[in-house]
Every structure is written in C-alpha cells, then in structure tokens.
Specification:
Length: 172
C-alpha cells in the first residue's frame, strides 16, 4: 500500500528535531540536503525506527526510515498491512517550506539558539560546589528545569512548521 498524506507528514516531522529542522531549512540546495540526509542516517547507524503514539494514526505501529539515494524509504508496519514509499529530500524541503514564514523561522532559530546557549552552561561535576548535594540543589536541578522549558519552546516552534498529523493535547 502507498503512504497516506498523514504518513508523509509524520515521516518528515518524526525524522527531525528542532535543531535538525533549522539545519535542513538553511541548506542552500538539493545536493546539500542529500549530504545532510546521509549524515543523519550515518549518525543513526543506518536505520531509524519509532513507534507511533496513542492518538496518532495507526497508534502502536512501527515506523522505519531507511536511507536511499536522494531521500529515504519510509515504512509503516500497521495492523492493516505494510504501507511504504520513497520520500525525496526535495519533498521534505517542500513540506517544511509550505509552512515556514519569517515569524516561524525566527521563533525556531531563537528557540534553537537558546537551547544551545543553555547547554553550553552545563557544569558536569560539583567543581565549584562543596559537595554533590549542593551541586544538585544549587546548579543541576535549576539548570535542568530551565533546559526542559527551552526544549518545550523549541518543540512548539517545530510544531508550527511541521504540525503533527493529529494535534497533541496541550502539556499544561
């Protein structure tokens, strides 16, 4: 069976993080996008799989991305049978480009930059603190809490450009 429109949307959305989406949008041409895709699959050791969440189309189905020249093969192992198809990086770029506006792009860039700057502030050990308990209470917990807030903001920016096939309920 062929991929549905929801499958295509989820194939693109579930493949990228906010950081990856920003990188992908900023690429100048198809050759750069193809090279970017090769790197993504190399970092993921060739294949990438995700189970669909409750509330999504075919909840619980295993989805598989496999690299192919100029794109990837996306498979949905659903209860009604296997759906599969080839997705070109050009199609990924078009799908993302349909919803990119200056405001959405700016929100994504700002959110990704904030996450990166925050991650640079991490102190991996109690270093300047007297003991691990003080480090945990005075540094790690506040740092982690702020990091999660920034990650949620980045996810919201991603959702504005690549919305889920079925809208997720608000976290709060």
């Amino acid at each position: 069976m062929k991929l549905s429109d929801d499958d295509m949307q989820m194939a693109v959305r579930d493949f990228v993080s906010p950081v990856q989406l920003l990188e992908f949008i900023d690429l100048p041409d198809g050759l750069a996008r193809a090279e970017w895709g090769k790197r993504q699959f190399k970092e993921r050791e060739g294949r990438f799989t995700v189970r669909r969440l409750d509330g999504e189309p075919d909840a619980g189905a295993l989805t598989v991305w496999t690299p192919e020249p100029g794109g990837f093969r996306y498979e949905v192992e659903a209860s009604r049978g296997l759906r599969a198809g080839y997705v070109a990086w050009r199609e990924v770029h078009e799908l993302a480009g349909q919803r990119v506006t200056a405001v959405r792009y700016g929100a994504l860039r700002e959110a990704v930059d904030r996450v990166r700057r925050h991650q640079e502030l991490y102190i991996p050990c109690p270093g300047p603190y007297a003991d691990p308990g003080v480090w945990d209470a005075q540094f790690y917990r506040p740092w982690s809490r702020r990091g999660m807030t920034l990650q949620v903001q980045a996810a919201v920016a991603l959702d504005a450009i690549l919305p889920p096939a079925v809208a997720h309920p608000s976290l709060f």
